[in-house]
From TrEMBL:
Cofactor(s) listed: L-ascorbate
Molecular-function GO term, any one: procollagen-proline 4-dioxygenase activity
Transmembrane segments: none
Gene source species: Drosophila rhopaloa
SMART domains from the UniProt entry: P4Hc (SM00702)
Keyword check for Calcium: no
Protein name, per record: Prolyl 4-hydroxylase subunit alpha-2
Amino acid sequence: MDMHYATSTREMASLLQIEDELIGHMRQYARELQLKVNTMRTFQKEWKTRREQGPADPTTYVANPLISFPLMRRMYTDAPKLMEFARQELGQGPLQKLLERDLTSISALEMHMAATGLIRFQGVYGLEASEMANGKLYGTQYNSTLSSADCFALGTHLERLQKGKLACKWLIVSVDQYNDQLDPVNRLLLAGRSQIYEKLGLTLLSMHDLPASQAALKLSVACASKDDNTKLANHLIDNLAHMLVHVDNCRGKNPLSRNSSLRCSYFTESDPFLRLAPLKLEQLNHEPFIALYHDVVLKEEQEDLLYHTRSRLEQRQVDPAGVEAEVEANASDHVRRLHRRIEDMTGFDLEDSKPLTVFNYGIGGQQFIHLDCEQPKEFVEPFTTKYRTVTVQLFLSDVEMGGYASFPDLKFAFKPASGSALVWHSTDNFGNCDVRSLHAICPVLLGTQWVARKWISGSGQWRRKPCRK
């Protein structure tokens, strides 16, 4: 459509709207440029202030480790980021000279050595991180301090060396030293409050202090700006929430509620034979469906499964404290009867499912928190054989201490008995992976645990469950 601005006042008036938009764009551009200028000035002022705090003689100036380490860090860490920041808008004159300055001679090794030297200095003289950061060395107060970014660099250096306890001290001091007036600079250096708390959370996680790690990661998200990347922190917060519940589950703090609407019954529905020999069913959860069948694996069946696996057990890749072996459905009459019983318990066809897998967990052996299912691609029919929709876990031994079956998202756990079978649905009624079915086996504290697991595939269920809707 042709516009005739010159000959139509109505169309000419529409140019005012365009001009107003351009003015707004220019105002925003000018504001961003001013923010950049302010950040550069903050850098310049901070560096100049530090230079003026020390003696004029360069050799004397760098003799103080509270001055030499920050100098090394600024040249190695800050200066390249400042130059990259400046390159976003190339200019002439002093800026061009700044960008052409070669900093390649300041290597990662130099930075590593400077940090190591300062930490060695701290250890030999028994100095506190907070006192060093505030300029106090061996009882003498100096007119020089470590910035938040300096302390953050030291904490990161120590975390890489797996010295978590000392790293946490420096990271906490980094928070204490944080200057809100330098916030734009620290964010540019990826050393803002959010980044400090995230590093603290990761360090605490490596030390297995789950509550403190979760608290630090939550502070990381709370302090983040819209430009900060919080994907890792949010992901870890969710996982830590489940891990903390799982720890309580393993300690017996979240037993099954006896006041719920769940019930025990004799199960007779899936096969006419069950009317003569019903299964003892204890329903543990409605959605997703979780049930415990009592006394469904006979003693001779347990012994038969162990007989077929003892010589073929292999160490598990996911947990060296456990071993496993598969047992084919036609391995013996006992195994065939077990498979028919699993079909009766679940109402699912086992034809496309993998063989029974027998696991043995020794002292400390466990199954980590995980899901048995993966979300299938939308509108794909039928399910692939790898897609697990139901899990059946047969317990083949009693454990003296530990070995609880844990459901962290549902906040409950229980100690299974030998001969029982745990059944849970990993998918909802639409065939989607149900995250509420997160599960684990707690570490074995005393004794040994034998279990057999059958993953029932969503494939081949067209007779039992015709569609995903």
